[in-house]
Specification:
295 residues, two-stranded antiparallel sheet, 4% strand
């Protein structure tokens, strides 16, 4: 695949921004880097997914190192979720191979690349759901003295496990592993490190404080991105020169973002995260519209 020099430069600039988000919010940034490479720079979907995941491995590794003494990472909870996400990644890799072998799609009389079109459609649905869910939470009135309990706490299925970072520490293990598997499928298929759904899930479903959720999410992103990135490399879904440029930008951004993220209040983390996701929704929606009706 031939890529222009200007593409490398803009990819590095985008990676600085995404790496900063990795450090602040504990998200890998795949929900931005993958569609940005596809939409803004014209990189094929499979290459965007694989190369983006390898960049996320590096930026999340640096962010993990920066947070190592912050006590914002629940390694036990992260391990439980990562056990499910690892299995899900392999399912996502299989789905990507299936999309690459599909015949072109015809949508409203226009022929579409199935990888590009289906991935962007999935990104749109995922981001709309996350933006809406978190916008509702940011706007609703909260009792500052109310104990924060995640929705998973109502599930009473053995085995149970205790997590010290939760206000209701005893929780069923099964929904945690299943949700981790779902996040892993998105990692393998879409190049999403998992943080874009893991951060709100840890806050609302598991019941973690936003600051600790950002750290724990980062651990899961790191594990699933290593597994998914390795799988995509073995399948040839990456471009080495593009990856090097993205690594430079991503590491710079992750270093800056981690310093910012450790100083932010929990409510600010959620509010700013909504703004970022809303911006991604508009970018993806515009591209899908152009592909369907204009291009």
């Amino acid at each position: 695949m031939e890529i222009l020099i200007s593409t490398y430069i803009f990819a590095a600039i985008i990676s600085v921004f995404v790496g900063t988000l990795t450090g602040i919010f504990g998200v890998g940034g795949g929900f931005l880097i993958t569609p940005a490479l596809m939409i803004l720079l014209g990189v094929p979907g499979d290459i965007a997914v694989g190369t983006g995941l390898m960049m996320i491995v590096a930026s999340s590794s640096l962010a993990m190192f920066k947070r190592r003494k912050s006590k914002t990472i629940d390694f036990k909870l992260g391990a439980a979720l990562a056990s499910g996400s690892t299995l899900g990644v392999f399912a996502g890799l299989y789905l990507m191979s299936f999309l690459k072998d599909m015949a072109p799609l015809t949508v409203f009389g226009r022929e579409q690349n199935p990888v590009q079109y289906i991935l962007l459609g999935l990104f749109f649905l995922l981001l709309v759901w996350i933006a809406g869910f978190m916008f509702f939470d940011v706007c609703r009135k909260k009792d500052p003295y109310q104990i924060h309990i995640g929705l998973f706490s109502v599930i009473k299925l053995p085995p149970y496990i205790r997590f010290d970072s939760l206000e209701s520490p005893k929780m069923s293990l099964l929904p945690i592993v299943i949700f981790g598997c779902f996040a892993g499928v998105l990692t393998g298929l879409m190049g999403v490190g998992g943080g874009v759904i893991m951060l709100p899930a840890l806050i609302f479903l598991v019941g973690q404080h936003p600051t600790k959720a950002a750290g724990t999410s980062l651990l899961i992103v790191w594990v699933s991105s290593i597994v998914g990135g390795t799988g995509h490399m073995l399948n040839g879904n990456f471009e080495i020169e593009l990856l090097v440029c993205m690594l430079i930008g991503g590491l710079i951004g992750a270093n800056v973002g981690t310093h910012i993220g450790l100083k932010l209040h929990g409510d600010k983390i959620k509010r700013y995260f909504v703004y970022i996701v809303a911006g991604a929704v508009m970018m993806v929606a515009y591209k899908v519209y152009m592909m369907t009706f204009i291009d």
